[in-house]
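My current task is to audit a protein record that another person submitted. Alongside the sequence sits a line of tokens, each denoting a local backbone shape. Please read both lines and tell me whether the tokens look consistent with the sequence. Do not assume that whoever made the record got everything right. Thanks in advance; the entry in question is below.
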Amino acid sequence: MSGSTRKLTLADLVAISSGQVIGAGVITLIGTAIGVTGTSAWLAYGAAILVGFFSILPFIFISSTTVLQGGEYSIVANMMDKRVAGFYATAFITQCLSLSLLGKSLGMYVTSVFPSLNGTAIGLIAVTVFFVLNLGGVNIMADVQKLFTAILVIALLIFGFYGMTQVNPVVYDITQPGFFKNGYGGFVAAIAIYAYSTYGQYMVMNFSKDAARPTKDIPLAIIISTLVILVVYVSVAIVDCGLLPIDQVANKPLTLAAKKLFGTLYPVFIIGGPVMALMTTMNSTYGSRANPILRAARDGWFPEIVGRTNSKNVPYVIMFAVYLVGILPLIFGLSIKEITSNLVLVGYLLRMLTAFSIFYMPKILSQQWKNSFLHIPDGVFYTIMIVTVLANIYMVYLSLRGLSFTVMIINIAFLIFCGVYAVLRYNSGKVHMDSVKKMV
């Protein structure tokens, strides 16, 4: 995708970043948070976004320092032992399962409006359409992303801003008995519920090689999209907390409040809101998954055929592999819970590994880091890094606790396989790590 006719602008990157982070979670999570903390669920969402932003600060720092040819993979490849990079690249393939999760969720929302349709078929069609679209190059993907993200943000802002004129003012009263339903513990629990929906914007770094001004625009895109979700998520949560009696929306999806607010226009909101949220994430997922794998393939971690590209410089073999991993769970009818169970642990582990790698940035990329427009004193940097790594370790622990014994064994066996493969591939002499030379 690096041979595109034009490079991605800041507007492109903001659309990709915002579309990546705004998923259907905003529709499903608020009611759950209300159930544990009461009316303060809207305030908890704001706090969760700040916590999420803090957790991705290291990724913002390194994005402002160097061009990450392979995104997240390049961080590990340049900061850690080469075999660790091979482990990361192999395990990263599992993150393509998120496509099936998106397809499954999309089918559920579409059939909630059109019950006669087949949800699985809808999911398969959507995953396939975006596969074909992404084969056309990063520019086509970015143009579609800008349009869809604009529709998505407008739909959610209409819900939020119009809805805020209809809410009961008591929603803002922090002294009311039901505001902090379960005290401090409930508020923190709500933040934890929201956590997974607040930091996906950092994955725009995987488009670093396609950006016109990567070390400027990638971190700016992450910051801007964080401000976007702060406004969108909090306003939407205020409406869900204040439009209907709190006991009616607790542990219920946002669609209940949407039906009340929009009436007969409710189906339009579903298409513009949750459906568009899933499609923007699906659209950007192909590139955000393919680019790290492409860089790893060119470093020799996979057979040469894996890195082949079409006339648009799109790695079509990798794209097809991403597509295949995405549709198989849909074809075999796996549930959202089953898909998530096999996705979250490895995902958090890889993110922890990436965060830990950034510890070495001030030494390995010392001059570039000093020249970064986001440079901070080393003491502040390492303090942030320690907190981030500890937070990621805790998330891995929580993921392990939430897995069944069988799923845990499958995950551990897969991780062992990735480690063995990385060592064997490295010892074969086929790994040459060109990406280390590509970081400037």
Q: What stands out?
A: The chain has one domain: 10-432.
